[in-house]
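Got a spare moment? Tell me how you read both lines of this record:
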Amino acid sequence: MKKILIICLSIVFTTPLLAQKRDITLDDLWKNYAFYPKSVGGFNSMNDGEHYSTMERTEDGQEIIKHKFKSGKKVRTLFKSADFEIPRIGRYIFSKDEKQLLLATQTKSIYRHSSKSVYYIYNIHTDKLKKLSDEKVMYATFSPQGDKVAYVFENNLFIQNIKSGAITQVTTDGKNNHIINGASDWVYEEEFALVRSFEWAPDGEHIAYYKFDETHVKEFSMDLFKGGLYPTQDVFKYPKAGEDNSVVKVYFYNLEDDKSTYIYTEKDYEYIPRIKWTNNPKLLALYGMNRHQNELDFILANTDDASNKVLFTEKDKYYIDVHDNLTFLPEDNFIWTSEKDGFNHIYLKGLDGSETQITKGNWEVTSFHGVDSDKMEIYYTSTEEGSINRSLYAQHLDTDVKTKLSTINGTNNSSFSKGLKYYMNSVSTANSAPIYTLHNADGKQLKTLEDNTEFNTKMEEFNLTEKEFFTVKTEDAELNAWMIKPPNFDKSKEYPLYMFLYGGPGSQQVTNSFGWTNYYWYQMLAQKGYIVACVDNRGTGGKGAEFKKMTYKELGKYETIDQINAAKYFGRLAYIDANRIGIQGWSYGGYMSSLAITKGADVFSLAIAVAPVTNWRYYDNIYTERYMQTPQENASGYDENSPINHVEKLKGDYLLVHGSADDNVHVQNTMEMISALVNANKQFDLFIYPDKNHGIYGGNTRYHLYKKMTDFILKNL
């Protein structure tokens, strides 16, 4: 009897506690920003390998702090903004001897990665601060000796002597929309992630730099509506598929002789996506690629006379992804990664042309961290525990014995110390916020820097359900997927299904990692009675080269087939209403959702496309031609999978959203889609955000966008 009483009391007191859990609101998401766990900001390993630095906010400003790797304890404060009249610091850079700091302030973004800032130089030992220039300049970088700073201003490369203040102008022909020195053009920045386009030689006697001649690249213009009686116009060079690129050249600048020398190569390369100095200060490595991006020459150039040779050539029947894993080792060896055996793996190469494959298996190396020459070990992150996970490993170079260092299955991101004695690890899962820890190189945990306990406790207030992973098996492929069900899920009921996707080449949305704010928006939709799901179609990453590259020359075709088949699979589940399936995506995902609601009109009843590509002819050439070749070579591949050519199939509810100042996926895509829909007499919903770029954010914008999408879903699905 007493036991029954206890159970009854337990039910009485537990039920109200469960009822207290509250649903997520849009205010929580985009006004209160309630779903942002803590992180470790500005992490940087210092040169001795025993210390690291962070940049932390305080009540009166910002501090750059030195810590011990071994204990995580603070050693000293290197810089306090409160001691100086200085604007907010965006980032900091040490000189090689770590006696000075470059502090970037008043940073203004240009495109996705590029920016310009007012820089300050701070001497840690003398506690003196001085401004590099009153002007906002780009990519200020210390020389190896720490006595000079190179930077780009108004498309020209400059070098400033820190002590004397004397300025050397390396180039003089820089001109907007014509010549760029030391920085990249729009398409290199966006598609090769090449931003700062100059590199100091290890001895500081030379700088290698790019010159982009944009003269023959066609211009794109965007009207900007804020700030005046008449709109202004932003005009920039944007090479679309099949159109002319910048003519790109690389030069050596000799500081002593004040002379630039062009590196003339025997082949006329369409692209030179990377340069990097070897350990020899007279030897520079360059990647040279053809327009199809399926051949890459690894070139070595000498500063003495700019003579050069091709050390090796890599070819692929589809395309080659450019990477930053090139690492030069002592004794003329270097690390290279390649997909040539079907999966991305690590190779040890020599400047004599020798090569040894280090990692092997039907899994991918996703990050290379370094080689400890003393221990003869390499450190890398891979998909060995499944394509949705990322785990850290150490592998012995002689014995091939492998040790797993990460202890939690999920997404591990590791930052190693100089000398590879320690590392900081962050790990998250689909249903847990990141945990930041310090470790020895053997994996032993030394300290927890942030476990987000406070955030996790706060999340207990909300009515959340777990994201579940599974595999969707279609007649064509096995596809990774996740699902979020309503908190009060009843398998005897039918629920509408809301699918989210991206789907682009090499991407992954189905990962065992923290989903940030979007994850909580999906939870909000689940609380409103929707099942939310995501499927990674063929063409996405984590499963090897063939799975990723099988969409070659036909972007959109197989991805759409997979999403339609996945939706049919979901529709056959007893608890999903097959007549109420919606889909949404952004950018490539917007392209895919537009194809889904047209080609899959009998399956999808709703689609939302944010900033979509609607015809690959309108997108840039480096990205598009990598996967499609040129429109002149592959017209059918472009036209048969462009949503504007399938609008007559539209049956369901379709919402188009775009920012009018999107420099990446131009609003032209949406305007062409509008014209096609109108010509086909198809009704749809449209919203344009004036002067907003590809990210569509700023002020109240994100709240407005997500309210618009939420209301559209609630009304129509």
Summary: Residues 1-18 have pLDDT under 50 and may be disordered.
